[in-house]
Amino acid sequence: MPSSEPFAGRLSERLSHLGSGVFARNDQRKQAYSAAATARGLPSLLDLSLGSTDLQPPEQAIAAIQAQLGAPASAAYCLHGATGPFREAAAAWAQRRFGVAVDPEREVLLLVGSQEGTAHLPLAVLNPGDPALLCDPYYPSHLGGLHLASARPQFLRLSAANGFAPDFDQLSSSQWDALRLMVLGFPHNPTATTGQQAWVDEAAERAVRHGVVFAHDNPYVDLALEGEAPALLRSPHWRACGIEFFSFSKGWCLGGYRLAFAIGAEPLITALRQLKGVVDFNMSLALQAGAIAALEQAPHWPEQLRPIYRERRDRLARALEALGWPVRRASMALYLWLQLPAAATAAGLESEPFCAQLLQHTGICLTPGNGFGAAGEGYVRLALVHPTAQLEAGAARMGRWLAQL
């Protein structure tokens, strides 16, 4: 194998800040386990590490994609101008969903997944060394975007003791004045906390007062299991400070299609559009047809998912509690945010070694909390992305191993 030494010193320092990423590390472990399982007859992999649901998207969306796939334009590059029909559909959805009038030309932008938007926005609004605020725990692409922009991350620690509510007084007035960007997301991943509109409203007020760009990541807006999900678009200040990211991955089960969009203040949409115009194109018109169909013909699809996730949450919680593993009931769909079980703590295991050993011994893959920031250490994230019977069987497998620790 050729030596990598000729490239020593030629790679960017940015890569060392980015690290390997928790999902990439998990992927390597899953591949190794699956290869061993095939060779040694081990239990099959039960992947509960990603919010990639087993539930299906609406038939109307798939039918619209299929109907457009054969059109020559669907095989062509798609620039911003061709996304007009989608942007109009997204603006109409915002009017129905939040009661807010949105200009599809100046305030809506199609994205190749919401992670593209949250990771690229810092490049559009920050200079190297600018301070930017994240919640801790945070979603990994939020920090990744700051590292790509050579920004200086600051953290707003969330704790279970206060229900993972953001305490904005953790920062002094001078620290708020110095900030250039704040990234929040409620409902919150990974803590599975729906949150409150008052939290987002206060963040928007602070952003206006201190001249901070407020990016609100909201792919779970339609998947609150308790209460109504907050949204920046409900705040009267959104045009003065902010941009909000929405996704078809969760509510419409279209994760692999990478369909998402941003709605926000015209200067921020224009800046992100300019960046996109340099680094990428848009997805196929066929996929956009599916997204339009989801918004217009299946607007209530997420409502059908919530009872399924609620049953999965409750039944798996009972199964884990029967093992002596305390569970905080998630108020949004898709995840449980679990403190490490007592057996793991007694064995001196932190979150990543625990998840690695759990996978090795049971074939069940969870996401270690340390991948979501320092405040995530001591936790694991479990995705409710398989039928209830498989989740309960997985709990039994975990229980047998925990009893041996």
Q: Characteristics of this structure?
A:
405 residues, alpha/beta, Aspartate Aminotransferase, domain 1, Aspartate Aminotransferase, domain 2, 15 helices, 12 strands, 13% strand
Molecular structure report:
By secondary structure, the protein is of the alpha/beta class. The strands form three sheets. A seven-stranded mixed beta sheet has the order 2-8-7-6-5-3-4, sandwiched between helices. Strands 9-12-11 form a three-stranded antiparallel beta sheet. A two-stranded parallel ribbon has the order 1-10. Helix 5 (114-125) packs parallel to helix 6. The chain folds into two domains: 13-55 and 301-402, Alpha-Beta Complex (Aspartate Aminotransferase, domain 1); 59-297, Type I PLP-dependent aspartate aminotransferase-like (Major domain) (Aspartate Aminotransferase, domain 2, 3-Layer(aba) Sandwich), CATH 3.40.640. The chain has helices spanning 13-18, 22-40, 59-69, 84-98, 114-125, 140-148, 173-178, 197-210, 238-241, 266-279, 285-297, 301-322, 342-346, 351-362, 388-402; strands at 46-47, 108-111, 131-136, 152-157, 181-184, 213-217, 242-247, 260-264, 335-339, 364-365, 367-368, 379-383. The model has no long low-confidence stretch (mean pLDDT 94). It is built from 15 helices and twelve strands.
Chain-wise SSE layout:
Layout: H1 13-18, H2 22-40, E1 46-47, H3 59-69, H4 84-98, E2 108-111, H5 114-125, E3 131-136, H6 140-148, E4 152-157, H7 173-178, E5 181-184, H8 197-210, E6 213-217, H9 238-241, E7 242-247, E8 260-264, H10 266-279, H11 285-297, H12 301-322, E9 335-339, H13 342-346, H14 351-362, E10 364-365, E11 367-368, E12 379-383, H15 388-402
Parallel strand pairs: 1-10, 3-4, 3-5, 5-6, 6-7
Antiparallel strand pairs: 2-8, 7-8, 9-12, 11-12
